[in-house]
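Supplementary Note 3. Input sequence used for the single-chain structure prediction.
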Amino acid sequence: MPLPPFSLPALDGSPHQFPTGRHALLCFVKEDCPTCVLSMPLIQAGAAAFGDSMDVWCIGQDDAGNRRLAAAFALPAPMLDDSALHVSYRYDLDTVPTIILAAGDGEELERFIGFGKADWQALFQRLISVTLSPAPVVDWPAYPESRPGCGSRSVEPGIAERLQAEMEGSPIRARRIDVGESDDIFEFMFDQGLTDGLPVIPPTPERVVRMLAGTKRDPQEVVGVVPPNLAPVTVEKVAINAVLAGCKPEYLPVVLAAVEAITTEQFNMHGVLATTHFPTPVIIVNGPIRDRIGMNYRMNVLGQGNRANATIGRAVQLVVRNVGGGRPGAVDRAALGQPGKYTFCFPEFEERSNWEPLHVERGFDRSDSTVTVYAGGAPNGIIDQLSRGAKSLATSYGLALATAGHPKAYGHGEIVVIVPPEHVDTFAKDGWTKDQIRERIQEVSARPARELIRDEFCAEGMTPQQAGRIGLETMVPKFRDPKNITFVVAGGEAGKFAAYLGGWVSGPMGSQMTTVRIRE
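The predicted structure, written as discrete structure tokens, is reproduced below.
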């Protein structure tokens, strides 16, 4: 197969194009590689012996180092500048020196890497027969039998990803923004409105390529259509925002699944943004991926300090902002907002519960990794440090949940209750299931319709007509359906503190909890 053609300048600026129409010896080197330095006298000898009949080129990977090498060895061969490393990348170099013999049409005839005395001797014999030139004078006993080479600069971390982004077949298609050399990149991104109010990581091409390595999905696959602008979001654009958020590549599959979930019709991201209420996408992670990427489901699970928890939720928020256009004060109309609008992501502490984990309860296998998104409010504490039985503890939950939203707000939709391990133990001791707790919550929180009527002291609640239609003594349950009460186990193993996350207009007119399997 022909080698890729190229054009590189020599140290004097003159262009050299390959293929040349005659045999060419291409010698890739870098100054800080001892094996390259060891090979230079042989390249020099080959150029002197065969240079009239064929092209012998040194191709250096560092501009200043190229000049020093050429001066140190008084090269009769041109030293070509590949400090941009485009040719090294296209030639798939991982080690220097790499010596390639090519025919006049560019076909590769021979290649070896590192230093091998036998390789050089065989190469010179071949070139003697090709050029009919006399053998170069070489003090072979002065050379070792072999010596390993050094890593090519084109495969160094950061450089390899940059080259992949710059070359043909790059996975990157997004529009690039040029930043002036005198501009502060972090201030520039603030000025462009690309942040959530906190500094973000610049999404350079090499960082985006590295992020894309976290998934097997095609970078141009459309993940979903993001409200409010109904903008298609590709895997690449999710990766860009994951870089901005500070994610590691291994987090990307979780971010992608969460974006898939929030862009479903049933989740209704547009409504979640447009309401003046409190909701934001709450991302709950289940399955083996939790431990694989180092998520925290223990102490301080809803707080700061864990990179995966913090940046996955933040990446989803940035996708909504930067791709969908969901910015505060525009379509995002929250009257107060809440800290979860920066990020709200946590995994379930599955191993600490005798109950089925959330994703199994929602129809997935325990071995699946999933994200469940929920339009939730900020955490509200449920403190019960004294209950020693399941019924007493469930009663506390019911009394606390009776005030969710407002003590007179009934017919509630979805709500998430985060149950700490110590409370799980209390329920487990008496063998209570989730359904039993739900029933007790409904029982405890129910109120007769007459207590829920609006009056001169409180304008919230039922109208007298509504209460009259159902009967003043009719017990009204807090939740329309007990299945709307979702339990998730999480938190430190010491501390009897639960929490609930209030929902927003659950059902077809609002947002519905959505679970998506994570694809690698």
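The first helix runs from residue 34 to 50. The chain has 17 helices and 23 strands.
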